[in-house]
Fold:
Amino acid sequence: MANSYKMKEFSSTAVITENAVFPSTISINTMNTKCKETEIEDAYDPFQNRKLEHPNSDVRSFANLLKSSLGSGILAMPAAFKNAGTVVGIFGTVILGYICTHCVYLLVKTSQDVSRVTKVPSLGYAETVEAVFATGPQPLRKLSRAMRIFIDWAMAFTILGACAVYVILIEESVKQIVDHFYPDSGITTTMYCLMFLVPILIFTQIKNLKYIAPFSGFANVLLVLTFLICLYYICSEFPSFDSQPMSVEIGKLPLFIGTVIFAMEGIGVVLPVENTMAKPQHFLGCPGVLNITMAIVVLLYMVMGILGYLRYGDKAEGSITINLPTQEIPALMAKVFIVLAIFFTYVLQFYVPMEIVWRNTKEKVSQKYHNHAQAIIRAFFAALTVVAAASLPKLEQVIGLEGAFFYSFLGLVAPSLMEIIFCWDRGLGKYNYILIKDSILAIFGMFVLVTGVMQSIKEIIRTNG
Structure:
């Protein structure tokens, strides 16, 4: 396309940057994968070799990262706190925020370092993984291409999982509104999902981002208005701090961790933001764009979580908008706003995994059937998200499952393992502290993945049994 469009996600997913192209575009074949000597690595500065038509300032990069991290996920924080308690929830959010920030740091730092080795200006998530394996220990190099494809598909299904969460949120919100005005409608969850399938199939057939991108600003305005209305209701009848337990049974903690990671993790966003900065060296460090942004994100998520939990307690739903009284006009407006905002968010988010899927499948399709193949692929995966939403209708449980299964791997495990692989032949630090630290992070990520998935499945079975 002639114009440049930028798409930002609303919960923790990837973005499209330059010329509406998903950032995983550089082939490993263009990289210098044999160059490992320190003096050669230091001689190449990827920052000086980036040619950007419209580079972003530090302030704009901060705004982009903040906007991408602050989305509908914040509305799930009260539900996260009910699986932790007040004090455990506060400290848990801060600790998880630090861990997520550090893992993002590992990803960006490793990407910058491997860019120096391979002599390319910038890399996306998937190419970073490929380059790390291609320049890492000899036995792992043959896996580089396979790992890129694996990460590509993992990212695609992560975003598709988030799209399924969006469908559930839309369904629950619309159901509340309809049941308020027509309490005997008799429309089931499955019927609602089938009704949403038609507009979803229509809008997801849009393949040109320039027709989709304008909805991003409108969705952002609706999300801000929804957030303000929620704060109004939360603070209108604010109970004392000791009205809710400081901690709950430890078996619920994996659901808390999964939900917080889902809401907070933006591992697919950071590299596109860093890659388009005028001064990318300002992204990391102290204070740095990343640290400032994540400090604000953690603070806002913690405040929303504790305030919403104190207000609604164990009745807190997967989105705080569902707790608002439908019979009141401001609350009804918030529910309508969130339906529209999340629908447009779905359409925007859906563009990213379809770019990934098509990039990995188009070579197997004859050129003359490309348009038909893309239409079928888009329809199939759109229908898949709706089927998943109809099968797993409890919003907070699906959020916990999505966060534990996908985001814990891409956000915690993968960045930790990448730094270990990259530093294996280049030095693991004094007393091998890099190996020890990253191994602990990777083990924690796997713990979150296994326990979070198990607990979420148990809750889904218990609720639907």
Residues 1-30, 36-40 have pLDDT under 50 and may be disordered.
